[in-house]
Amino acid sequence: QIKTNFESNLNLALRDYNVTADRHSQAVKKNRRLASGWRRLHCCGVQNYSDWERTEYFTQRGIPQSCCKSQDDCLEEDLKDPSKAKLKVFVDGCFFLVTSTMESKMSVVAGISFGIACFQLVGIILACCLSQYITNNQYEMV
């Protein structure tokens, strides 16, 4: 369920990438964060770089500069031609990369969660012991 939602959201972000010309809109801010994320992850598109060919952005500008392996060796003409772009951009899609990274970190998250749960359980047990001790002492005072 989570993977499906994540993939559909990535597809929507790809489809709507930089569609608006309004520099102050929320969409442009989200697109900038998305582009910088692609650059850091060394990935392009959802499944692979060719996902861009089905977008409005591709018809106007080609594959985004944020997908380039090297910003210095990435011309706009090359990005408009998928066969040339394949040599200049990251070809792997972001969906598999992100989900596999998340799945590999799940054991760490589960371990931390288990540790916190144990800590909480110890707190509950100590609180019950304290409550029992206070209750026993009140009866002795009478």
UniProtKB/TrEMBL annotation:
SUPFAM superfamilies per the UniProt record, alphabetical: Tetraspanin (SSF48652)
Q: Name one GO cellular component term.
A: membrane
Entry-linked Pfam families: Tetraspanin
Q: Which UniProt keywords apply?
A: Membrane, Transmembrane, Transmembrane helix
**Protein's cellular compartments:** Membrane
Recorded hits in InterPro entries, A to Z, give: Tetraspanin/Peripherin, Tetraspanin_EC2_sf
> For this UniProt entry, what is the primary localization, expressed as one broad class?
membrane
TM regions (residue ranges): 108-134
* Bilayer disposition of the protein: Multi-pass membrane protein
Q: Which domain of life is it from?
A: Eukaryota
- The protein, known as: Tetraspanin-6
Species for this entry:
Gavia stellata (Red-throated diver)
The organism's lineage?
Eukaryota, Metazoa, Chordata, Craniata, Vertebrata
